[in-house]
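Researcher: I'm preparing a figure for a lab meeting and need a structural model of a single chain. I don't have an experimental structure, so a prediction will have to do for now. The sequence is pasted below. Please return the structure as tokens so I can convert it later.
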Amino acid sequence: MSIFSVGRLCLKIAGRDAGRHCVVVEEMDSRFVLVDGNVRRKKVNTVHLEPLADVVQIKSGASHEDVKNLFSGQGWPVWETKAKKVAAKPIHQRKAKKVAVKVPPKKAPVKEAATEKVAKAEKKE
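Model: Understood. Here is the structure written out token by token.
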């Protein structure tokens, strides 16, 4: 039986939750345990925990609600915030290829002087 058995109260000494109290909820292996309480419920290296003298009665793999009831009964604070939801990745859609529309070339404007010469030439004939 290891010192970090289920129900052992601990003090977190490293990481974001350093200085907060927690309880061991489940033993993963000889180095890691699952903790909950006034910390985020997560897998923690036992090197980052300071075991306290108190051991509470709690079943292995207890839910957050069970730990919350235990801590509230003792008057200890409990971690209550939820993790943020990750937004869905936007689906990238291919842009439609632009279809080139052929525009007929514009006819150059006919100069009036040229048309007058043609008209005169036709009259002479």
